[in-house]
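Input record, target 12 of the design panel.
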């Protein structure tokens, strides 16, 4: 997959997307450099709810000139997305489920990538944070908001996996109808989707998960299940976990016999110590 100027074979190596929130970091470039040094392949830039959206555009502009890594932006605003793509962003993640046609038009015109989130249990919750998170940072939906949204998606899958998959495909189809090429679409889901993971991976689009810190367990579990991008604030932990599990799967990509991989497929519990021990 091509992300900006980065060309990577996702079949051989998973990518780590480091989350960078503009509003909580006066030393933006220094923080970005540290995330790249820790192993981030892509940086996702986002902003707080109360922050001027122009700050996001300015941050992308500065970082695109300062760093040689692809940049993603977390926004549901077509105008902000278009401005960020104009100054160097290569990927857009909209937690609302790409509901705005104009946002998809902007992505398609720029030849950028769109991240489509696995939907929640219905229109009111589809790719949306819950009301209790309304005052938290919109920036990249990290921390508590990530966990809450993942919980919504898990609950949706437990009760109506076919309906949720249909809503995901509707989002993907909207993107393709808008002109986004199929190889410019990433789908994002929670790791705890049970048998639906096979369905999801079989769609043929790269799968991204959000790994809430500490990230190694979720990152390794997602990789073992077939995800190819890990989005997190814990870049160092996710990079180590991806490299460990990637090395295991490189020996025999079809085998789940290795203890770490078997543990990943069963649950995150055993993986918490399997992976932590492996990367120390």
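The sequence produced for target 12 reads:
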């Amino acid at each position: 997959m091509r992300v900006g100027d980065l060309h990577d074979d996702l079949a051989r190596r998973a990518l780590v997307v480091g989350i960078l929130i503009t509003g909580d970091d006066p030393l933006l470039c220094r923080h970005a450099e540290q995330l790249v040094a820790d192993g981030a392949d892509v940086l996702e830039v986002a902003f707080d709810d109360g922050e001027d959206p122009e700050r996001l555009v300015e941050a992308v502009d500065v970082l695109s000139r300062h760093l040689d890594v692809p940049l993603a932006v977390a926004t549901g605003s077509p105008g902000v997305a278009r401005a960020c793509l104009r100054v160097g962003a290569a990927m857009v993640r909209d937690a609302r489920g790409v509901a705005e046609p104009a946002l998809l038009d902007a992505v398609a015109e720029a030849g950028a990538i769109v991240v489509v989130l696995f939907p929640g249990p219905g229109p009111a919750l589809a790719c949306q944070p819950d009301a209790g998170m309304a005052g938290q940072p919109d920036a990249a939906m990290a921390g508590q908001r990530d966990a809450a949204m993942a919980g919504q998606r898990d609950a949706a899958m437990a009760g109506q996996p076919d309906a949720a998959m249909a809503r995901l495909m509707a989002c993907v189809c909207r993107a393709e109808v808008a002109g986004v090429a199929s190889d410019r679409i990433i789908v994002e889901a929670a790791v705890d989707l049970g048998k639906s993971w096979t369905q999801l991976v079989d769609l043929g689009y790269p799968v991204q998960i959000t790994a809430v810190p500490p990230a190694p367990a979720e990152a390794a579990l997602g990789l073992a299940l077939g995800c190819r991008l890990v989005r997190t604030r814990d870049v160092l932990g996710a990079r180590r976990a991806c490299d460990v599990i990637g090395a295991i799967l490189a020996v025999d990509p079809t085998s789940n016999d290795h203890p770490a991989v078997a543990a990943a497929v069963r649950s995150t519990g055993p993986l918490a110590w399997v992976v932590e021990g492996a990367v120390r």
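Residues 121-159, 260-280 have pLDDT under 50 and may be disordered.
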